[in-house]
Specification:
With about 100 residues, this protein is mainly beta. The chain has no helices and ten strands. The chain has a domain at about 15-85.
């Protein structure tokens, strides 16, 4: 059995234990230890994760997209899509919106 990931730090690679989702931590809060889950199960260090189970259905986490928590203090980059939903402390994470480019008048 795998143990939950320790406090996430930028650069950490995490994997889901219930689907094929894998992420890299881009930004993490220094003052708290958020509980990261995917599909309702705790995420683990990618090196310790079991092989991803076969999936059917539409991916919920999308390859190359960034996800942020409600405070905007935790940011994850999806490196492998999956059918599980990412959550931080029980609250679903949202897709980070792209910054608009300045006008080139």
């Amino acid at each position: 059995m795998t143990s939950p990931a320790p406090t996430p730090r930028p650069g950490d690679q995490l994997a889901s234990t219930v689907c094929g989702t894998r992420v890299v931590v881009v930004r993490a809060p220094a003052d708290r230890q958020p509980a990261l889950t995917c599909g309702g199960a705790p995420m683990t260090a990618a090196a310790d994760a079991p092989p991803a189970p076969p999936e059917s259905g539409v991916p919920v986490t999308l390859l190359g997209k960034r996800y942020v928590d409600a405070d905007g203090t935790l940011e994850l980059l999806c490196t492998s899509p999956g059918t599980g939903e990412l959550a931080c402390d029980g609250v679903p994470m949202t897709l980070k919106a792209a910054k608009p480019l300045p006008a080139s008048d």
